[in-house]
Amino acid sequence: MLSFMCRTSPSRWIYGNKTDIVISKYEGSFMVMVTQIGCMGTILAARKDESVFSDPTYNVLFGKRDEPLLLACARQLIEHIR
């Protein structure tokens, strides 16, 4: 049976913008959604394998592909989760 847990944090004000955060945990993975406009925009996938010799990978699944700040956010998230 697939386990699913959804946890939402209260909205926060970041630089004057209301920011909603949703964290969902699946078997072996997390989904983190952050929005300041009330809907999903660009969707990123970040993965860090268990191997010591593999580097984390970051892919844009949907949306803006030329935004380095989004990849920097994905990099920071994956480093703090593991």
UniProtKB/TrEMBL annotation:
Pfam families in the record: PAC3
Name of the protein described by the UniProt record: Os01g0339600 protein
InterPro entries: Proteasome_assmbl_chp_3, Psm_Assembly_Chaperone
GO BP annotation list: proteasome assembly
UniProt-listed Gene3D superfamilies: 3.30.230.90
TM region positions: none
Organism of derivation: Oryza sativa subsp. japonica (Rice)
